[in-house]
Amino acid sequence: QFRSANIDGGEMLGPQADMGKGWWGKLYEESGRGMLVKEGGEKFVKENDWNEYVIEAVGPSVKIWLNGEKVVDYTDEKLSKKGLIAFQVHSGGPMEVRFKEIVFEVKGGK
Predict the structure, then answer these.
(1) Edge to edge, what strands does the sheet with 69-75 contain?
(2) Is the entire prediction scored with pTM above 0.85?
(3) Are 41 and 19 in contact (CB under 8 A)?
(4) Which residue of 36, 42, 80, 107 has the lowest C-beta tally within 10 Å?
């Protein structure tokens, strides 16, 4: 989740860059309009290895790269331009999630 807001019940409202089987490289608006970019980047995923995910949000535009390949280039004036960053893990069976080398950069803006 990025540029998101807390809403009732512990939910978030805002864009999310999805990861996981069948979801890699898609852009979704949680608790909003749903799927914004349906084409995924599954073909660029390194199975059983680290995957580099880069999210660039500037003004109304969002670009996402998966392992160096641009998978999202989306512009929408309705998309939130500020908010929280969050990591979401879905409920279900046992799972392991790992993150490393997380870098946040804020350039200009407020």
Answers:
(1) 53-58, 61-66, 69-75
(2) yes
(3) no
(4) 107
Q: Residue 75 corresponds to which tokens in the numbers above?
A: 């512009």
Say how many CA atoms lie within 13 Å of 23 toward its Cβ: 11
Q: What is the DSSP letter of 95?
A: -
State how far the alpha carbon of 17 is from the alpha carbons of 4, 66, 110, in Å. 12, 11, 22
**pLDDT means over runs of 10, the chain (110 residues):** 91 91 93 94 95 95 97 96 88 85 81
Do the beta carbons of residue 25 and residue 11 sit within 8 Å? no
Tokens encoding 93: 């069976």
**Rg of the chain in Å (alpha carbons):** 14
Q: What is the pLDDT of residue 98?
A: 87
Q: What does the pLDDT read at residue 78? A: 95
102 DSSP assignment: -
Q: What letter represents residue 78's amino acid?
A: K
